[in-house]
């Protein structure tokens, strides 16, 4: 009996010792991880447009406003068609003090202030590359025009990386809002997913976030589903406290994304996400109004609510972003305006029609109608954009006075 008690004591002692060893190993690994993970570097100067004057000296140079403490901005881009267009664009801000994350979707058809034939934000990435520039730099410049400041970091995710990431996570439980059936053999795209709550693997998840042909409001419907899917990913990630194969996910993203983030930066963002509650991770859509311009569908920024959203959800600076910080094309009534006062090119210019004159809408570049899920074939910017003119079949425009920045759209 005495020997049995001694054996129990020895077993308990060994168990506690082993437990202590595991605890020490865990603490050591956590310390190593904390030393390894790293927040992304942030440029010390604020954008030149977001400045405030020193009140004590009227001749003083503008000074950069302070950034909000431990706040980071990121541009997330999805290459989700066969033409190199970036049909999924999100701008996000992570607040590591209040543990909140906000992401704003930029609609693919957003009209940007360029003098190309097709002026949609989703064509900028590939269009910049086609004209000899650096694709991500061109897109970041247009995002900066839209939001008023430069993002701290970016990540471009292609289809294969998205599929592999979802599979490494063990799938994502999601309530598919409607039956999704669409095929495009030219893109090797086959979407067949029934409505309902289910665990989606990588291929199925890719189909859900790409599908848009069945929505009454087209791309805006797809954006809503994408946001709900990303919210489901975040909620499951937080609820589990981790995801299967997290180290493999970090490695996959670091090695296969076009990004300026290191593996340590990605690990930092993942840990910060775990510190948020699902209610504090929010998705928004840029306030917009869809419209047709010479036969092409565009979305125009709704300026005042957009500025409010920028300052509430994205701006990492203490100084508020104003319209003067943006280079945005928007509409007021039937008039097209630019916050910069300079509408580039003459493609959406038109003369005021007479009683017997009706302008003919210009056709889209070939192919004129891309597959529903595929997006437009990206145009190459004109070699001499300052001389670019509307197609011959349109009425030759009469540009407005340069200082006005206004043109009239013919409906």
Structure description:
The protein is α+β, with helices and mostly antiparallel strands and 411 residues long. Helices cover 32% and strands 19% of the residues. Helix 4 (159-168) crosses helix 5 (202-210). The chain starts with a helix and ends with a strand.
Characteristic key phrases:
411 residues; alpha+beta; six-stranded mixed sheet; three-stranded antiparallel sheet; disordered C terminus
Helix fraction, binned, reads 25-40%
Class by SSE composition: alpha+beta
Mean pLDDT: 74
Strands of the widest sheet, in order across it, are: 9-4-1-2-3-10
> Would you report the number of β strands?
15
Q: Label the overall shape.
A: globular
Total helical segments: 9
| Unreliable sequence segments | 15-36, 51-63, 349-411
**Rg, please?**
26 Å
SSE layout and pairing:
Elements (H helix, E strand, L loop, with lengths): L1 H35 L34 E9 L8 E8 L4 E6 L18 H7 L4 H13 L5 E6 H10 L3 E5 L3 E5 L4 E5 L2 E5 L1 H9 L8 H22 L5 H11 L1 E2 L3 H12 L6 E5 L2 E6 L2 E6 L1 H12 L14 E4 L2 E4 L67 E3 L3
Parallel strand pairs: 1-4, 3-10
Antiparallel strand pairs: 1-2, 2-3, 4-9, 5-8, 6-7, 11-12, 13-14, 14-15
Q: How would you sum up this structure in a few lines?
A:
This protein is α+β, with helices and mostly antiparallel strands. The protein is 32% helix and 19% strand. The N and C termini lie far apart (98 Å).
């Amino acid at each position: 009996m005495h020997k049995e008690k001694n054996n129990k004591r020895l077993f308990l002692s060994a168990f506690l010792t082993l437990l202590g060893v595991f605890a020490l190993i865990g603490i050591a690994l956590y310390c190593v991880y904390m030393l390894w993970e790293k927040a992304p570097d942030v440029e010390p100067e604020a954008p030149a447009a977001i400045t405030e004057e020193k009140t004590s000296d009227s001749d003083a140079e503008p000074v950069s406003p302070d950034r909000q403490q431990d706040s980071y901005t990121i541009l997330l881009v999805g290459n989700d068609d066969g033409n190199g267009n970036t049909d999924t664009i999100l701008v996000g801000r992570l607040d590591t003090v209040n543990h909140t994350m906000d992401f704003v979707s930029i609609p693919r058809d957003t009209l940007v202030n360029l003098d190309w034939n097709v002026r949609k934000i989703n064509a900028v990435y590939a269009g910049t590359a086609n004209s000899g520039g650096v694709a991500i730099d061109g897109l970041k410049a247009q995002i900066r025009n839209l939001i008023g400041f430069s993002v701290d970091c970016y990540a471009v995710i292609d289809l294969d990386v998205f599929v592999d990431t979802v599979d490494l996570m063990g799938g994502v439980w999601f309530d598919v809002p409607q039956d999704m059936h669409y095929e495009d053999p030219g893109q090797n795209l086959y979407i067949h997913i029934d409505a309902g709550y289910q665990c989606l693997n990588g291929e199925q998840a890719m189909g859900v976030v790409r599908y848009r042909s069945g929505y009454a409001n087209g791309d805006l419907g797809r954006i809503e589903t994408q946001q709900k899917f990303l919210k489901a990913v975040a909620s499951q990630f937080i609820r589990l406290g981790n995801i299967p194969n997290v180290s493999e996910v970090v490695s996959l993203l670091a090695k296969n994304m076009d990004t300026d983030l290191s593996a340590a930066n990605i690990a930092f963002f993942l840990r910060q996400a775990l510190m948020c509650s699902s209610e504090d991770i929010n998705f928004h859509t840029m306030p917009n109004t869809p419209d047709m311009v010479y036969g092409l569908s565009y979305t125009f920024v709704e300026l005042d609510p957009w500025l409010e959203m920028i300052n509430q959800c994205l701006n990492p600076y203490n100084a508020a972003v104003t319209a003067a910080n943006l280079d945005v094309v928007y509409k007021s009534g039937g008039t097209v305006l630019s916050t910069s006062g300079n509408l580039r090119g003459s493609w959406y210019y038109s003369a005021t029609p007479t009683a017997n004159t009706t302008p003919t809408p210009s056709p889209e570049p070939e192919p004129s109608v891309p597959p529903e899920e595929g997006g437009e074939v990206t145009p190459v910017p004109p070699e001499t954009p300052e001389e670019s003119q509307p197609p011959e079949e349109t009425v030759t425009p009469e540009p407005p006075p340069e200082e006005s920045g206004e043109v009239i759209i013919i409906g």
